[in-house]
Amino acid sequence: MTADRNLRRSPLHGVRDRLATLSGAITVAEVPFLAQINLRITRRSEPRPGGSTSDGDVDVLWLGPDEFLVVGPPGSEQRLISAYSGPEASVVDVSAQRTALDLDGPGVRELLAFGCSIDLHPRVFAVGDCAQTVLAHTPVVLQRRMSGFRVLVRSSFAAHLAAWILDASPDLTAGH
Amino acid sequence: MMLIPCPWCGPRDESEFHYGGQAGVAYPADPAALSDAEWARYLFFRDNPKGPFRERWSHSAGCRRWFSLVRDTVTNEVLS
Ligand SMILES: [Zn+2]
């Protein structure tokens, strides 16, 4: 039985229009339905702790010394499961656990600093770096990308985080 | 606020961590052989030093790994 994809509603479906009104200091867009695979494997040296690797349309994010999050485009779950399965690996489809928000703009670091205690200056948190941390009291996976940041947030916390972003954004000084 | 150095993630805010109490409390080799008093001593009795204290922490909002560190209970300075 195949689910009708037209009936799918992403966790931030209801606030998509309000997020789209943000412009200037920051831009925010949900990237829904990404394929996400939790990979537990002991002998793997890439990506390094606190980093991520990108290969084509697939990112591998470091979550812990034996734990990684493989992120691919919507619908790529089976391809990723096949690619990473092995005798010493635990491979679990966790795609529904989190949705993604891509944040960009001149005020993006200022916005994140309102709710996140780690230093996100590019000297410390460079392109490719990723961290599991807390943003606006919400556990997130934060990834610095070529343009801006990607925030992976649990589906049930996503509406709270979106509301926090919408609330904090008018206070940004950059880009106005 | 206290910065706690996770061996994997580096310094993070204390709110990302879960405290695990005194480090190096060994599980009894033969728990069934213990008296109630001995079992209670294992479960509930801990050192309470004024000064350096070796303790367990879990980076629960980050890499979710347990580790040990030595903290001065007077100054909160992390010594190792
Ligand atoms: Zn950590």
UniProtKB/TrEMBL annotation, chain A:
SUPFAM superfamilies: Folate-binding domain. Pfam families: SoxG. It comes from the Bacteria. This is Sarcosine oxidase subunit gamma. The lineage of its organism: Bacteria, Bacillati, Actinomycetota, Actinomycetes, Micromonosporales.
Automatic annotation (TrEMBL), chain B:
GO terms for molecular function: sarcosine oxidase activity. GO terms for biological process: tetrahydrofolate metabolic process. It comes from the Bacteria. Pfam families: SoxD. This is Sarcosine oxidase subunit delta.
